[in-house]
Design a protein that fits this description.
The protein is an alpha+beta fold. The protein is built from 5 helices and 9 strands.
Length: 286
């Protein structure tokens, strides 16, 4: 059977193509195959898109997981670790502070013992080519009023001048007199001379123990505190003395029972961190 296909609105004069049913089926089948191919292609594309989206979802999930992990590390683990480190650091610092203080005390004790036989005299004029030991012996006789025979029997390990005092800027104080240090051989000789320190009151001279720097500074602060206490209580008696090689601030509390000697009692003293400069020594702190 033949079918006449006529295009709508086609001119009447146009030649009409005569197609058989077989031709129509062949063309329809070809169009169907093209449609199937297009659908299959779209299906492949959709599958690929879904795969990509799935992969993207995994990446997003991974990013979200990692972000949560980072937040946990930042907000929980790091602060805990920092707290632990701080605690350990404070413990180490405390342990080191204790050990350093112990070592400082040991060194100061050793230094104090090494200086325990020494006395330092301030205020004596210095002359060129002087015999420093003779100058020291003359001072003990004339200014400290120790009998010449006792002074002649004193044994020294060494007697020499110390460097001049320094100004705050570290330069040498040209107006200062160089102190004399007397290193005795016997403790009893050193103690005997020190007991005569009161003879230097109201003079230009002073005598003191040769203490380590830290203890010398502490002694200076005690002298300042003694002065303050004396101004607060003019009737009271105060002194800076020594126990072993360490300075102590003491106050008089009557007499020792059965004697005419003053009973001295230690005063609690804790220097402040911002303590002012120590005052000038006066007569060995008697």
């Amino acid at each position: 059977m033949a079918v006449n296909l006529v295009k709508k609105d086609a001119p009447v004069t146009r030649q009409v193509k005569n197609l058989t049913a077989a031709d129509v089926l062949v063309e329809a089948r070809a169009n169907h195959n093209e449609l199937v191919d297009a659908i299959n292609s779209m299906s492949v594309m959709l599958t690929d898109i879904q795969q990509k989206l799935g992969e993207g979802g995994d990446i997003i999930k991974s990013i979200n997981f990692n972000a949560a992990s980072i937040d946990e590390i930042k907000d929980v683990k790091l602060p805990a670790l920092l707290d632990k480190c701080t605690t350990n650091l404070n413990k180490v610092r405390a342990d080191l502070t204790v050990k350093i203080d112990v070592e400082k005390e040991k060194n100061m004790t050793m230094e104090g013992h090494s200086r325990r036989l020494n006395l330092i005299v301030n205020g004596m004029e210095h002359t060129e080519n002087e015999n420093t030991e003779e100058v020291a012996r003359d001072f003990l006789v004339n200014d400290m009023q120790i009998p010449p025979e006792e002074v002649a029997g004193l044994l020294f390990r060494d007697v020499h001048r110390l460097p001049k005092a320094k100004n705050r800027d570290g330069t040498e104080n040209e107006d200062a007199k160089k102190p004399i240090i007397m290193a005795f051989l016997k403790q009893q000789d050193r103690n005997m001379v020190m007991r005569k320190a009161f003879k230097l009151k109201n003079t230009d001279f002073s005598i003191k123990s040769d203490l380590p720097k830290a203890l010398n500074e502490l002694r200076g602060l005690m002298l300042k505190e003694r002065k303050r206490l004396k101004e607060t209580n003019p009737q009271g008696k105060y002194r800076v003395s020594e126990k072993g090689y360490k300075p102590v601030l003491q106050t008089a509390q009557g007499l020792i029972p059965g004697t005419t000697k003053t009973k001295w009692v230690d005063v609690k003293f804790k220097p402040t961190a911002a303590a002012p400069p120590a005052p000038t020594e006066d007569g060995g702190g008697a």
